[in-house]
Amino acid sequence: MLIRKPNDIPSSEITPESVYINRRHFIGKTAGIALGGVAGAGAIGGAIAGRPGRAAAQTAQVGQRDWSAVRTELGEELNSFEDVTTYNNFYEFGTQKEDPARNAHTLRPRPWTIEVGGMCANPGVYGLEDFIRPGTMEDRIYRLRCVEAWSMVIPWYGFALKDVIDRADPLGSARYVEFKTLLDPEQMPGQRARVLDWPYVEGLRLDEARHPLTILATGVYGQDLPNQNGAPIRLVVPWKYGFKGIKSIVSMTFTEQEPFNSWKRSASHEYGFYANVNPEVNHPRWSQARERRLGPNCGVFSCEQIPTMLFNGYVDQVAGLYAGLDLRVYY
Ligand code: MTE
Which pTM does this prediction carry? Predict the structure, then answer.
């Protein structure tokens, strides 16, 4: 998301789309599989300066695995490791897409603690390893669709957010969960600039948070998350615009009131709480009907445009969450 203040705030992100797979299943079949799952889309608004463009095949060998045959169920190729790790939104390290990869070396993702609190029976402060222990680790290939109208396809590694929610045991009166990013201008020098009201805050309704597509990611391309992607742990909600995917999380708080998320706080006429991907609800300053799929077919002078899908292609899985809700009002 590009930000200018206040009248002129564009923002955006990507929300991944996906196909998700059980890790054992995935590893067991590695080369030559089309992953089963769901399709999605993504997009970014604004200029594509500095966008990545390597074919996935060029970085097919990442770590010990050959990723070249991995596709979504729609036949979409993964974005390359380089795409995923050099074109980022992480304003704590700068507002240009290349800033996080350049600057996020100052973040120290270990040791790391996460505080779970608010309206729940089992609050606590956990070291990272203890926090993720209840989770069943999986690879999940999701489309990331940024509110800025660009998109990628990304192989995350993580576990269902529901696993840690169940352990926390929220009270019956809790309706939402709020997340915060680390606040530390020494590690996150972008927090010295008032582009947002720090720390970055996001939230979900509890039913959204418990949905099986919602994950906490600790890795990408089978490796620990690079700092620029939100190390050591970040949220991924594939049917929502990418700004819901808060990075470098240090707290999770159960609440009765809807969390006041950072982008809504910054420009509520442009960014809401729900942020569901929807090609029929335009951003006030640009259309959300289509998106630029970053990658080999997206260059400086021309870029492949694909239609954006309702809920980023996960309509069958998530539409029931919003039955009766006017998506133009609850954007
Ligand atoms: N989380 C924090 N803490 N700070 C940010 O600036 N940017 C959001 C989201 N999470 C952001 C954040 C936006 S706008 C997007 S599109 C995604 O992260 C981008 O994730 P990626 O860089 O891993 O593709």
Answer: 0.85
